[in-house]
Write a structure and sequence with these properties.
Layout lengths: L3 H35 L5 E3 L2 E3 L8 H18 L8 H6 L3 E5 L5 H9 L4 E6 L13 E5 L13 E7 L7 H15 E12 L8 H15 L8 H10 L3 E12 L6 H12 L1 H8 L3 H18 L2 E11 L1
Parallel strand pairs: 3-4, 3-6, 4-5, 6-7
Antiparallel strand pairs: 1-2, 7-9, 8-9
Helix pairs in contact: 2-8, 5-7, 6-9, 6-10, 8-10, 9-10
Length: 313
């Protein structure tokens, strides 16, 4: 009985968040569409999907996939981050940067839960909310490869995740990680989370799709497995101490389960690029996905996610 009011309050808060995120996503897509009508400088279109570069699409379907991915991480890790900054966030005046924030789901949840701290999200495309968001959350368009638009030592916590398909090894080593470290305050924390583009216990169709993803990324100079290198990139800055690492193997599961949905949507998001790379039709690619989805349960396929976090000295 004693837990009734608190459970009700938490359920109400979740419903409020979900409604806000749906409204924010709709508002973002509409405002982005109006920008597209006047200028297509951000995007190109292919087979009805919107793209910014060699990565996955950055349209409404992709933003919905990223929101599902956020909740998958939250349920699998039982946390939004591993760095020991929860107390500082709650106390207030903690400044947080999320680089490559996408639709901003991670940032807006933290902003709602920690009203006395300040949260900034950047992304190279304006796919984040512009109107409906907590008062302590702001978003900017910026590309880390051009340099972050912040002074040295600005943030107490710098966060970035799921950018493995965005940067070459050289960019990770000499641009991305050094720039994240630069804007982090001494004593602050930097955290990177990734999922390699290789799934454990894959069936033949799944393995074919994974190998094709590797080859496609390699043709653009991008390494599909980043986690063995991240520790070294962090170490080479000579500005980080106490570098920690953790990983989780997450079963893809059955149709209808969250991980299954994310895995299926991830394969579908790559359709345009990978079907062209394989020189097969979209119908043939769709059949590969259908076979892969049947394999997930049969082969006990698993996705591995990694977190690295360290303190700036």
């Amino acid at each position: 009985m004693g837990n009734g009011p608190s459970k009700l309050k938490e359920a109400q808060r979740k419903r409020f968040r979900a409604r806000n995120q749906r409204e924010s996503l709709s508002s973002t897509i509409c405002s982005t569409a109006s920008r597209e009508n006047s200028s297509n400088q951000w995007y190109r279109f292919s087979y009805g999907r919107r793209y910014q570069n060699v990565e996955n699409p950055n349209d409404e379907d992709e933003m919905a996939r990223l929101q599902l991915l956020h909740y998958l991480v939250k349920s699998s890790w039982q946390s939004d981050f591993s760095s020991p900054i929860a107390g500082q966030l709650e106390s207030g005046n903690c400044r947080v940067l999320d680089c490559g924030c996408g639709p901003g789901t991670w940032l807006m949840e933290l902003g709602s839960d920690n009203p006395d701290s300040y949260f900034t999200g950047i992304d190279c495309c304006p796919v984040f909310p512009t109107d409906i968001k907590p008062r302590n959350v702001e978003f900017q368009c910026a590309n880390i490869l051009d340099g972050l638009p912040f002074d040295d030592d600005t943030f107490d916590f710098v966060h970035m995740r799921f950018m493995v398909g965005s940067f070459t090894s050289e960019q990770w080593n000499f641009s991305v990680i050094p720039e994240l470290v630069r804007v982090c305050k001494p004593g602050g924390f930097l955290e990177c989370m990734e999922s390699d583009m290789k799934w454990m216990h894959s069936g033949p169709a799944t393995e074919c799709l994974m190998k094709t993803s590797f080859s496609f990324l390699a043709s653009h100079g991008i390494e599909g497995i980043i986690h063995p290198h991240l520790h070294e990139y962090l170490r080479r800055t000579n500005r980080l101490a106490n570098i920690h690492y953790a990983h989780k193997n997450i079963p893809v599961g059955k149709p209808g389960e969250l991980t299954f949905q994310v895995a299926q949507q991830t394969l579908e998001a790559s359709k345009v690029h990978l079907s062209e790379f394989l020189q097969i039709s979209h119908d043939e690619y769709d059949e590969l996905i259908r076979i892969a989805c049947r394999e997930f349960e049969e082969y006990k396929t698993m996705v591995t996610m990694f977190r690295f976090w360290a303190q700036k000295i």
